[in-house]
Amino acid sequence: MAASPLYLSWLIKTDRMLRTKDGTMIEVWELNHAPDPKILSGWAKHFRNHYCDDAKIDLLRKGTPHSRAEYLNQIKFPDAKARPGPSIRSGDFAEVLIADYVEYVLGYWVPRTRYDDRTIRNESKKGSDVIGFRFQRTGKTSPADSLIIFEAKAQLSAKAAESILQNAITDSAKDELRKAESLNAVKQRLLDRNDLAGADSVARFQSPEDRPYRSLYGAAALFSSNLFDEAVIATCDTSKHPGKTQLSLIVISGPNLMDLVHKLYDLAACEA
Predict the structure, then answer these.
(1) Sequence-ordered list of residues with C-beta below 8 angstroms from that of 64, at least 6 positions apart, any chain
(2) N or C: which end of the chain has fewer CB within 10 A?
């Protein structure tokens, strides 16, 4: 596993716990970011490489009139101002943050295959948001191997708090039905990259009837601090989720997160 991104030191689990109206526990985390140039630069590079490997930028922009920054801003990254670009930015930010949480905090292998082949920059990708894999024993399958699928939603700028955790829970309830398609999509991208070992690791989870494993689920909501409303969060309901007993809930808040998102995109482009 690669070293944990430095910015994750800013992601802190609080002592608070909330409950949905049907009694499911919700972990409360805070993203206490700071204007640290080194950490923000590393975060921006990590973020950029989800959309475009640094080694491929010049090959991809060849034949266009664009500099690296122009190529990223005009071809790869969601638009900073034109709708729905800003909402796509906030959604992508939440998904990458939760992918890092699943990989570096929970300890799963999380293939990063979701953004680099996006053909329309201001559209969200379909399918499950974050998929993580964990093997109990290296090189061998075990019923204790686990697959976790997380849905992530963000509300980083608005006038009033919305029930985005409920939206994540509702989408998570669909993940068992779309798991086969999502796994195939991850495996196909790994094969496109000639990552045969990674594709084989995904294949281990494609036939649970023949090779059983544990299926876990998660729903996450990311808020700017001014939109974090415990009363709204407490109205969420997990009772209709088919995997309720294996469902983890997490909410994350931090100050001025939309400004942070735009700062990371700007750094990602100008430092490419």
Answers:
(1) 71, 75
(2) N
DSSP states along 205-228: TS-TTTS--EEEEEEEEEEEGGG-
pLDDT tens figures, 49-101: 999 999 999 999 999 999 999 999 999 999 999 999 999 999 999 999 999 99
Beta pairing, strands 25-31 & 11-19: antiparallel
Cis bond upstream, residue 208 (ω within 30): no
Identity at 255, one-letter amino acid code? P
Task: For residue 204, report the phi and psi dihedrals to the nearest 5 degrees.
Answer: -55, -25
CB within 8 A of 268, min separation 6: which ones? 44, 45, 47, 48, 72, 77
Supply angle C-alpha 92, 94, 99, rounded to 5: 95
- What whole-number distance in Å separates Cα of residue 69 and Cα of residue 75? 10
Residue carrying structure tokens 């939309």: 258
| Token pair belonging to 95 | 């998904």
CA angle 156, 90, 226 (to 5 degrees): 10
Q: Is residue 82 part of a domain?
A: yes
Residue 1, in any domain of the structure: no
Predicted model pTM: 0.97
What lies within 8 Å, CB to CB, of 114 at 6+ separation is 50, 95, 125, 129
Residue 22 lies in a domain: yes
Residue-number span of the structural domain to which 140 is assigned: 6-270
- The answer to whether residue 222 sits within a structural domain is yes
pLDDT digits (tens, 9 = 90+) for 92-141: 999 999 999 999 999 999 999 999 999 999 999 889 999 999 999 887 89
Total domain count for the chain? 1
